[in-house]
Amino acid sequence: MTGNTVVTDNPTQSRFEIHVDGTLAGIEDYTTSGDVLSFNHTEIYPEHEGLGLAAVLVGSALEQLRARGLKVHAVCPYVVKYLGKHPEYQDIVS
After folding, report:
1. Which of 10, 31, 43, 57 is 20 to 30 A removed from 68 (C-alpha atoms)?
2. Whole-angstrom distance between the N-terminal and C-terminal Cα of the chain?
3. Of 58, 66, 60, 65, nearest to 83 (Cα)?
4. How far apart (Å, rounded) are the C-alpha atoms in residues 83 and 88?
5. Cα–Cα distance for residue pair 52/32, rounded to 1 Å
6. What pTM was computed for the model?
7. CA 89 to each of CA 12, 20, 46: distance values in angstroms, whole numbers, following the listed order
């Protein structure tokens, strides 16, 4: 992966966003119910595929949820698979 990568929460659009060098490279759409965010869809835009950005996006989003005392419900198949490979996040799985 190259460039400056930043993951931010965009609550007005109900999604986490990953930016590479200031360009939106992908999103993690979510819905909120109380203190649980359901991660519904992970998408990395075609020009940024193959760089490992989905894992960076999901991992950073999960870290942000943990820091805010929130839980995740995995709907998106990618997030389900990611959580299966990263048991360190089981404490925030709803």
Report:
1. 43
2. 31
3. 58
4. 8
5. 26
6. 0.95
7. 25, 25, 28
